[in-house]
Specification:
alpha/beta; seven-stranded mixed beta sheet; six-stranded parallel beta sheet; 9 helices
Amino acid sequence: MVKAIRVHHPGGPEALQLEEVDLPAPGPGEVQIRHRAIGVNFIDIYRRTGAYPAQYPFIPGHEGAGQIVAVGEGVTDFEEGDRVAYVGALGGYSEARNIAADSVIHLPKSVSYEQGAVMMLKGLTAQYLLRRTFRVKKGHRVLVHAGAGGVGQLLCQWADALGAKVIATVGSPEKAEIALKAGARDVILYRTEKFEERVKEITKGRLCDVVYDGVGRATFPASLDCLAPFGMFVSFGSASGPIESFDIGLLAQKGSLYATRPSLFNHIAKRRDYEDMAEDMLHAMKRGYLTIEPPQSFPLAEAAQVHAALESRQTTGSIVLIP
């Protein structure tokens, strides 16, 4: 038996219940991981509320880090005692879990368990956004919404290291300082300023090549007004709610724009792509392009309070749960 957070029905943070659950031996192709840290992400909220589908009851959480304590039949790349991190199927909010070995990577000794638990989903999200969805290069003008958030800070860092001119939107002066420290050249306080007008001022009318938007409803369609002709709108999250259906002709009206709604899990569906992306991310960390700051840590039992704070935008940076 292990302790885990389970959700029995869609709801608010109170739907997260700490319970004891059975943990069988790992099956063929699986490894069993004793968690040392568990990543917390907005996708966990989407699962909890029912915005993203799940079969009830379920254990939330898509990423974590720890030590392998058992391996299933057919697993050859990992052994007991290995330090690992992963992003994969639900089941992270637990003391220990079984997961497909194809979802796991070796965690370098230079990376702490806490960093490993937050670098996978957020770091690989930054990787596919900057390196695969729209390949950011020197001189590109980039708008990052929620630039003080976990993914937002990584996007600012890495895009700046690639030579892009980064503009970030944030909700407070305190968060503005965080985004500037992360690499944004300009910061817009979206609660008191119309960000589309400020982007036009900052860029002297040239606008941006790409907008990275993890906010959703609150920033659309104004984000399209921040793009130069043929620019790309990348919607990768919906912290303020999903973007409602819109007339695709709007993209033509605003400059023959491109729009996409990518998913990390599509990008890592093939093991080779997953390995290549993780290698690129770790290389960026080694070169100093990407810094995974020590995340805020909370006990696993406080998952409900953590969700409430994250949902009300009271947090900055990354968060982990500690079993």
